[in-house]
Amino acid sequence: MDRTYADYAVQKAVELLAIDSPTGFTAKAAQWVQKAFSSLGFEAKITTKGGVLIDLGGKDCEDALLLQAHTDTLGAMVAEIKGNGRLRVTNLGGMSPINGEAENVKVYTRDGKVYEGTLQLCNASIHVNGEYKDIKRTFNNTEVVLDEDVSSKADTKKLGIEVGDIVCFDPRTRVTQSGYIKSRFLDDKLSVGILLGFAKYLKEENKTLPRRTYVHVTVYEEVGHGGSASVPAGVTESISVDMGCVGDGLQCTEKQVSICAKDSGGPYSYEVVGKLIDAAKRSDASYAVDIYPFYGSDVEATLKGGTDIRHGLIGSGVYASHGYERSHIDGVYNSLKVIAAYLYV
């Protein structure tokens, strides 16, 4: 596989990262995903739940494959409009106030207005707050300071902001000359880019898959039920293409593809993991096999939803997960090579 497909995957991921889509607020991102796959000539439809189901074609058989990634991200929701006009928020997914503090945000109202602000510790000036360094950050002692002239609850409500409005964090996406990709929410928009890169490879190289293959881009992974539905008939295997973990005690780097043998939900299919390792070797992909101590994936939701499948998990190595994340185009390329080799294309 030519490396240009990795370049394309990163390009599409950057485009998708620019679309705010925390869990529960994913319609625009899903429409973008549908259009991106459709433009490559593949049938793509929005599911009732809001995800995108894509048919990559392949020979009809009783052993179809489902590749899964997700476009929902971490974020927050307005929980209270405070008396000073600022906002107390509650997390969507695993968003942490420690990682969100001092980040720029956008607040989306239901009537289509968008307001900017910043998540700050309450009483955030270190020259005023003598306990600044010692305070344990929570969403109860941080607040969104709106970049509007508000000083009361009534002022903020006049803007149209209400409890339940969505709060999105600035991804701060950058791609360096050395090939590193830095952004919030590489988990898992980078993997959506990878699957688009694979789809482009199939189309341009005129490849016919040896087995029916589908892609499901889910929209509720960060809260645990993204892959629990919309499994096409005939699917016997499903592989999540999600972020690979990088950290202490693990082997993977950002330049590799990670193959997960076990996470906090238990072991992945021994057979599928073995075939993924074999695919990595046959394609000369740089890879690592790891165990993720605090992790769950779409394919586990698929199993919990009652679908009888074998399951696996791979992904480009990502450092600083659920924070300001970092990966590398080499990890993207190695992920693409494994997917192609797994399907013998």
Describe the structure.
There is one protein chain. With 345 residues, the chain is α+β, with helices and mostly antiparallel strands. The protein has helices at residues 4-17, 27-38, 97-100, 153-158, 186-204, 270-282, 298-304, 329-342; strands spanning 43-46, 52-55, 64-70, 75-81, 87-92, 104-108, 114-121, 142-146, 166-169, 174-175, 180-183, 213-218, 235-241, 244-246, 257-263, 266-267, 287-291, 310-319, 325-328. The strands form three sheets. Strands 1, 2, 3, 12, 13, 14, 15, 16, 17 and 18 form a ten-stranded mixed beta sheet that branches. Helix 1 (4-17) packs across helix 5 (186-204), helix 1 (4-17) crosses helix 8 (329-342) and helix 5 (186-204) packs across helix 8 (329-342). The longest helix has 19 residues, at 186-204. It is globular, with a radius of gyration of 21 Å. The model has no long low-confidence stretch (mean pLDDT 97).
Helix content: 25-40%
Count, helices: 8
Work out the number of β strands: 19
Radius of gyration: 21 Å
- The secondary-structure element order is HHEEEEEHEEEHEEEHEEEEEHEHEEH
Q: What are the low-pLDDT stretches, counting only 5+ consecutive residues below 50?
A: none
Shape assignment: globular
Strand content: 25-35%
In round numbers, the mean pLDDT is 97
Structural class category: alpha+beta
Oligomer: single chain
Give the N-to-C terminal Cα separation. 9 Å
Query: What's the main sheet like?
Result: 10 strands, mixed
